[in-house]
Amino acid sequence: MLVPVVIYACLGAVAGILAGLLGVGGGIVIVPMLSVTFAMQNLPHELIMHLALGTSMASIIFTSFSSAMAHNGRQSVLWNLVKIITPSIILGTFFGSFIASKIPTRYLQLFFALFLLVVAFQMFFGKNPKANRQLPDSLGISLFGAVIGIISSLVGIGGGTVSVPFMVFHNVELRKAIGTSSAIGIPIAVAGAAGYLINGLSNPDLPEYSLGYIYLPALFGLVLFSSLTSPVGAKLTHSLPVHRIKKYFAFLLLVVSIKMFLETI
């Protein structure tokens, strides 16, 4: 049991830094690593992906909150945008978690691998937005919020990999987009974790120490260390070349995506 605990702690530390630095919530790293660790522990194979997604969403509640507070201290959160998009994000995420609970692990893995591939190419080849493009009205933002919520629940992320490009594309300065994304990750994670908890409670094959599709030992390790490191990531956002770092991160996502494709096939 010691090795998984150490892995959970390391994952939490990395997730926290990524949440603060790139506004991605860390889920795109947490989910594949949790699935590997759960397999090492011989947890039920048909539940591995659901447990990874649910645990990731629950951990992002704490990661996003810590990161959002750090960014707020640097005045990098657009709270008006957060207020507009939150209701539709909650509905979309909660609904998406019900969909995910009905999908077999194999297809969830394939969808996640495809999502990573898209995100990797977007991060690596992303272009700067046109200077005259502005955010849509409240209805447009709300509709996009529902889409972010559904996607986030299916891949166990805080929505940053979707919301940050959306905001940057609409002429929001990158650091404010990252800070706002961290705040948006809070309602996404709360709604997603609630959905996975509710949908998993009735499953008779859940492993010991699970609360629905949330595996509590992993959650504890992730939360403890991610909360400590997310302010560090937020601070680094204001001193490191974020665009260059995103390209390195994109390459990592590409490798993880290919590995998951091969394992699933």
Could you describe the 3D structure shown?
This protein is an all-alpha fold and 265 residues long. The chain has one domain (2-264). The chain has helices spanning 2-22, 27-40, 48-73, 79-101, 105-125, 138-155, 160-169, 174-200, 216-237, 242-264; strands at 210-211, 214-215. The chain has a two-stranded antiparallel ribbon with strand order 1-2. α3 (48-73) runs antiparallel to α8 (174-200). The longest helix has 27 residues, at 174-200. The two termini are 29 Å apart. Belongs to the 4-toluene sulfonate uptake permease (TSUP) (TC 2.A.102) family. It is found in: Cell membrane; Membrane. This is Probable membrane transporter protein. Keywords: Cell membrane, Membrane, Transmembrane, Transmembrane helix. The chain crosses the membrane at residues 6-35, 47-65, 77-100, 107-125, 145-169, 181-201, 213-233, 245-262.
Shape descriptor: globular
Structural class by secondary-structure content:
mainly alpha
- Determine the N-to-C terminus distance: 29 Å
The total count of helices amounts to 10
Give the domain tally: 1
Largest sheet: 2 strands, antiparallel
Order of helices and strands: HHHHHHHHEEHH
Low-confidence stretches: none
Helix content: over 70%
| Count of extended strands | 2
Mean pLDDT: 84
Spatial order of the strands forming the largest sheet: 1-2
- How large a portion of the residues is in β-strands, by DSSP E? under 5%
CA radius of gyration is 17 Å
Oligomer: single chain
